[in-house]
Amino acid sequence: MGRSVLVVGGGGREHALAWRLAASPSVDRVVSAPGNPGMAQLGPTVPVDTGDPDAVADLAEGQSSDLVVIGPEAPLVAGAVDALQARDIPAFGPVAAAAYLEGSKAFAKGIMEAAGAPTAGYLATSEVEQAYAALDRFAPPYVVKADGLAAGKGVRICEDLADARAAVDDALVHRRFGDAGAQLVIEEFLHGPERSVFGVCDGQDVVLLTPAQDYKRAHDGDAGPNTGGMGAYAPVPGFGRDDITELRELIFLPVLRELASRGAPYRGLLYAGLVQTSDGPKLLEFNARFGDPETQAILPLLASDLGDLLAASASGAVRDVEVTWHDRAAVTVVLASGGYPGSYTTGKPITGVDDADTRPEVTVFHAGTGQADGEGLVTAGGRVLNVTAVGDDVEAARRSAYAATDLIGFDGLHRRSDIAAGV
User: Fold this and answer.
1) Which regions of the chain are under pLDDT 70?
2) Which of 401, 410, 356 is nearest to 383 (CA)?
3) How far apart are CA 297 and CA 288, in angstroms?
4) 187, 213, 234: which is the final residue of a domain?
5) Cα dihedral 263, 269, 274, 279 sign
6) Which of 147, 241, 392, 400 is the most buried (most CB within 10 A)?
7) Does the residue 420 lie in any domain?
8) How far is 351 from 238, CA to CA, in rounded Å?
9) How far, in Å, CA of 245 to CA of 249, rounded?
10) pLDDT digits (tens, 9 = 90+) for 91-139
11) Which residue range(s) make up the domain with 60?
């Protein structure tokens, strides 16, 4: 008999995880909490306060879950995995002490330094004058990061010193990010293409997944404010198996050893945001969970069983699982509410999702949708839908993804038109 898996979360990343788990031979049942209308098509959805570790553990116990997969970062930092482990419930994700890699950028930079992993120069401070002085150490563009969790909106790339000082004031004086911005990391800007590399870790060992490229800025040509991500593609041309092996030895294994030496062995998904500089790859950031929307582009290419891989992470045995990939490409285009990542309105009726979802090799992942009486599917977030297509190469997948997005409509729909263009 296969596993019963509980997926915690309700965004596009969690829909992709639930979708791939539901297709895994080792999985018989997928329950999502709280889920979304798309995840409801894969199995039961149940309400839960994802920020309450005991509530998550109570639900897993009540559902007789064989494996709990935590999607978002907030439950991980809050200690959901700690609560599950206390009840001997297998969980995919790091304990709170290890998830602090994402919970604090300053902590993550300290781990990178201690592990000898290449990264940008930085200074962490909660003092305005020290932050101003740190800016003077670096050349433009300036990077100003809120130390804590800020829903993907805590990083400012500033072209001039006045804008960078205003970003410091926003966080430390005006408290735009609340406690998440009470400390800042002022960082050297790294020049080069960004890469997202995901490692499935079991505390000592790691299996790296196929790399992806994401698009953080809101508008075409990488203009506009940073967002949680407006699209992605995988694999990344020119980023081969030798490059992945190098990253395993240069970054992932040293960081795993450093965390284990501190009594916080890392199990779960370790996301390394990298920049390929002229001096080689350098770490930009760590996240403690699957990236969004990169996951939506990576998982359709996975040929092996996701349930077995995530369970092996929880049990400490990733080296025993063979991971294989389809020799194809995938492109994900995010459909967002007008105004995102700033203010936007929700409750807009959505049309065309079924038409897009039934196209060959297209999957529409729900990210911010809801059901309204008499309206059917409506918008319920900033990033609303993630349209993913698979093709023989990136360009073929891109054409299919954009053709599918053309079928979907809602008032104020915003998308970038250049995801995976010219790859």
Assistant:
1) 151-153
2) 410
3) 18
4) 187
5) positive
6) 147
7) no
8) 38
9) 7
10) 999 999 999 998 899 999 999 999 999 999 999 999 999 999 989 999 9
11) 3-93
